[in-house]
Amino acid sequence: LSLDLDMHLPAIGAGDPESFALWMAGAEPPLRRALRRFAADLDTEAVLQETLLRVWQVARRVEPDGRPNALLRFAHRVARNLALSMLRAAREIPDGDAGADLADEPRAPDPLLRRALAACRERLPRRPAQALDARLDASGAEPDAALARRLGMTTNTFLQNFTRARKLLADCLRARGVELP
Amino acid sequence: MKTTRAEREALIAAATSAHRARDADGRVLPHPAWLDLDADGRRAAFDATELARALEAAADARGLSATGRAVLARIAL
Fold first, then answer.
1. Segment B2-22, tens digit of pLDDT
2. What is the pLDDT of residues A136-154, one digit of tens each?
C-alpha cells in the first residue's frame, strides 16, 4: 500500500519531533533508494542524515500542493542537491546526470516482518545477537569501538559478529518468505 | 594497498553503522571505513546498509531505523 506521508505535515510544521519520526519511518527507504546511484562516490548514510536534518529545519515552510507526499518530494530535491553539491566539491560529477529522481513512493510497513524478525532474532547465537542488539540500541549515537568495548570484544570481533548476525537473520527471514532489499 | 576479504567485510560492516562524526560546523562526515573502501566495496556497503536499516525499522515500534533515531537524537539536542 502506498502512503501519503503529508498526513504528518501539519504537526511537523508545528515543530513536533514525534510526527517527524513517523514521517521519517516512511520517507527513509525511498530517499535511500534514490541515493543508490551515488553509492560509489558518496557516503549516502551521511548524505541521508544531513538531508533529514535539513528537511526538519525547513519543513514548516513546505506547503501541500494538492498531490501526495509534498514533503517527501521536497526531501528528494534536498538529497539530490546535497549529493551533487558534495560531488562538485570533490569534482566527481557523474557524466550525463540529468537529475532524474525516482518517483518511489513510501509503503505501509509489513506487519508480518516484525513477527518474523523476532522469531529469527531468537535463533541467533549469543555473541552475534549481542553485537546486533548493541547496534540496535545505540541508534547511531556511539561508534562501534565503544559498543565493542562494552561487550568485551575487539572492534574487529564485534564487526565479525555483527556481519554474522545480519547474514543469519537475512537467511532466516528469506526462508520464511520475507522479501528483503 | 590491497585488503583481504576479511578486512573488506569488516570495513563494509563498519560502514553500515549509523554513527557519523561531525565537523566543527555540525555537518555529518563520511564514515572512515567507507573512505577506505573501493567503488565495489562502497556499493556493497550501500546494499548492506539498506538491509540493516530495513531490519532495524522492522524491530522498532515506530518503524524507525538507526538513521531515523540518529537524526531524531540530533534534533533533540
1. 789 889 999 999 999 999 998
2. 888 888 999 999 999 999 9
Q: What are the chain A neighbours of B74 within 8 Å (beta carbons)?
A: 49, 53
| pTM for the predicted model, two decimal places | 0.87
Count CB atoms within 10 A of the CB of residue B22. 13
ipTM score here? 0.95
- Cα distance between residue A98 and residue A94, in whole Å: 10
A144-151 vs A155-175: helix axis angle to the nearest 10? 90
Q: Do A138 and B45 touch (CB under 8 A)?
A: no
Give the contacts of B17 (CB within 8 A, at least 6 positions apart): A135, A140, A143, A144, B31, B66
pLDDT digits (tens, 9 = 90+) for A51-100: 999 999 999 999 889 999 999 999 999 999 999 999 988 765 555 554 44
- Among left, alpha and beta (phi > 0; psi -120 to 50; other), residue A17 is alpha
In this structure, are residues A26 and A33 in contact, taking their beta carbons and an 8 Å threshold?
A: no
Q: How far apart are CA B13 and CA B6, in angstroms?
A: 10
**Cβ distance A150 to A134 under 8 Å?**
yes
Residue A92 is classified by DSSP as: -
| C-alpha A107, offset from chain centre | 14
Contact residues, chain A, for B59 at CB < 8 Å:
114, 117-118, 121, 136
